[in-house]
């Protein structure tokens, strides 16, 4: 590499996304068995408390550049439709699970792609409103009082997680650099360990469901009054933001052997969901794990799946889908997935490009 060529990736975010996508896989695969032992129960609470807030925050960070509607349709809406068809085919012809092609009700993890489309579409308008961050939090709190269908157009989760996306779009990377001192890293570690100990030792929170972090369900479904639900969701917001930043202070900024997977999270996101849906619909293996040994093996299996679905054949498929164009004049569009950082030259200090 010539001395004049600038670094084209920020490996801190690549490494962070590798951690988060592995946690996404784990969070789904332990869904059916986390109540079977205290170890998985604590792991489940820990994962859901921050993994989607952090992922959405990073997605917002990479979404600083406004994109035209046609590009959003190509990069998000068309892949969403293709992946919905894949899930429909899996449910109907392989695991023979009764279903319909409910495009307004995303299947499994596809809600995120749908929500990302709306976030990217609405953010340029929302940011013109004074106090939009506070208003987005209020919307996320109030939607829990609604009795709308929890999966219709992913509206509840889109509103609940919108503050994390908006915060990401306004985040200044230099803030992490300034705060990444040894002292602050120690405090971050202490905070994370303290939260884990809270989950292990504090019995009161076990009366609640980890679903308080899902953003999908209203307060009545969660067995809460409106006031209790709002206060609980405020706590979830505080934990989500605090954990996101605390872990960011500890993530390595160096290129690691796994860093490449940080640009391939869409493939992992899609194919792990198909795999989970197949195993869930065709056997009881995921619901029968109740020992510590079995739990550790399951988590190891999740890491293995993350590595496998990061390989080129799977990424090639998602790149191909994101490259599909609308009918009409063809325009050459660089191949990328929703989380991939495109290679480009940088000016000093501009280490993180903007992507879809």
Automatic annotation (TrEMBL):
Organism: Dorea phocaeensis
Transmembrane intervals: 12-30, 42-64, 76-95, 129-149, 155-172, 184-201, 221-251, 258-279, 291-311
Name of the protein in question: Acyltransferase family protein
Residue stretches making up the Acyltransferase domain: 13-309
Keyword field contains Secreted: no
GO MF annotation, one: acyltransferase activity, transferring groups other than amino-acyl groups
Coiled coil: none
Protein origin, superkingdom: Bacteria
Keywords attached to this entry: Acyltransferase, Membrane, Transferase, Transmembrane, Transmembrane helix
């Amino acid at each position: 590499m010539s001395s004049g060529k600038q670094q084209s990736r920020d490996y801190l975010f690549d490494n962070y996304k590798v951690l988060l996508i592995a946690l996404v896989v784990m969070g789904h695969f332990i869904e059916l068995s986390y109540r079977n032992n205290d170890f998985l129960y604590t792991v489940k609470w820990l994962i859901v408390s921050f993994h989607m807030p952090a992922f959405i925050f990073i997605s917002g960070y990479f979404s600083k550049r406004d994109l035209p509607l046609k590009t959003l349709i190509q990069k998000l809406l068309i892949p969403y439709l293709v992946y919905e068809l894949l899930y429909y085919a899996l449910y109907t012809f392989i695991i023979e699970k009764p279903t319909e092609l409910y495009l307004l009700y995303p299947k499994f993890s596809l809600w995120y792609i749908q929500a990302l489309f709306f976030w990217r579409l609405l953010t340029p308008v929302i940011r013109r409103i004074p106090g939009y961050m506070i208003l987005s939090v209020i919307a996320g709190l109030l939607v829990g009082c609604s009795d709308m269908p929890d999966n219709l157009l992913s509206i509840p989760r889109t509103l609940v997680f919108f503050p994390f996306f908006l915060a990401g779009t306004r985040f200044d990377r230099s803030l992490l650099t300034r705060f990444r001192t040894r002292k602050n890293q120690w405090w971050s570690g202490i905070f994370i360990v303290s939260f884990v100990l809270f989950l292990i030792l504090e019995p009161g929170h076990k009366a609640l469901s980890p679903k308080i972090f899902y953003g999908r369900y209203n307060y009545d479904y969660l067995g809460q009054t409106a006031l209790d639900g709002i206060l609980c969701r405020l706590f979830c917001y505080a934990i989500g933001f605090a954990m996101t930043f605390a872990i960011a202070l500890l993530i390595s900024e160096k290129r690691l052997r796994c860093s490449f997977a940080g640009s391939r999270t869409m493939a992992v996101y899609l194919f792990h969901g198909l795999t989970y849906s197949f195993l869930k619909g065709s056997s009881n293996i995921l619901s029968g794990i109740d020992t510590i040994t079995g739990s550790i093996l399951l988590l190891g299996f999740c890491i293995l799946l993350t590595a496998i679905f990061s390989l080129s054949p799977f990424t090639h498929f998602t790149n191909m889908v994101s490259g599909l164009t609308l009918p009409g004049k063809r325009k050459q569009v660089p191949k990328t997935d929703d989380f991939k950082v495109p290679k480009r030259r940088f000016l000093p200090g501009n280490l993180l490009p903007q992507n879809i």
